Amino acid sequence: GLSNSVKLPGKTDQIARYLASADVFVMPSRWEGLPIALLEAMSTGLPSVATKVEGVDEVLLEGEHGLFVPVENPQALAQAILQLLRDPQARSRMGAAARLHISTKYTVDRMCEQYLELMLSLNENR
């Protein structure tokens, strides 16, 4: 049954181990800020299936890093998960693109640059 394929560990310190054993990362949120769990999954090269909510749609690019589904639509969620599970080449392509995206856009240096740019622009608008 599903218990052989789906893991719901709850709170754990074994995140890296679970991500390494996964084929797809699934994030069916109703809302998010900056989705750290999604960033972690993408950084390991996992393609994602996620609801298109604010925060997630700023990180994940549809068709490039994974797939979006509507909020509270379990049929669409299941269909998107199956689509990726049945297409190893798409999973590999999206996972590689996700890893590259995170490694270039979400580095400490890049985040510091973005904060500095924001502060400078706010200062200019005073």
Q: Kindly estimate the percentage of residues that lie in beta strands according to DSSP.
A: 5-15%
CATH domain fold name: Rossmann fold
CATH class category = Alpha Beta
Distance between the termini: 61 Å
Q: Count the helices. How many?
A: 5
Oligomer: single chain
- What's the arrangement of strands in the largest beta sheet? 1-2-3
**Computed CA radius of gyration, to the nearest angstrom:** 16 Å
Q: Per CATH, which architecture?
A: 3-Layer(aba) Sandwich
Number of DSSP-assigned strands? 3
CATH superfamily: Glycogen Phosphorylase B
Largest sheet features? 3 strands, parallel
Describe the structure in your own words.
With 126 residues, the chain is mostly helical. The chain has one domain: 3-Layer(aba) Sandwich (Rossmann fold), CATH 3.40.50. It contains five helices and three strands, in the order H-E-H-E-E-H-H-H. The chain has a three-stranded parallel beta sheet, sandwiched between helices. Helix 2 links the parallel strand 1 and strand 2. The model has no long low-confidence stretch (mean pLDDT 93).
Short structural description:
The chain has about 130 residues and is mainly α.
List the helices and strands and how they pair.
Layout: H1 15-20, E1 25-27, H2 36-43, E2 48-51, E3 66-69, H3 74-85, H4 88-105, H5 108-124
Parallel strand pairs: 1-2, 2-3
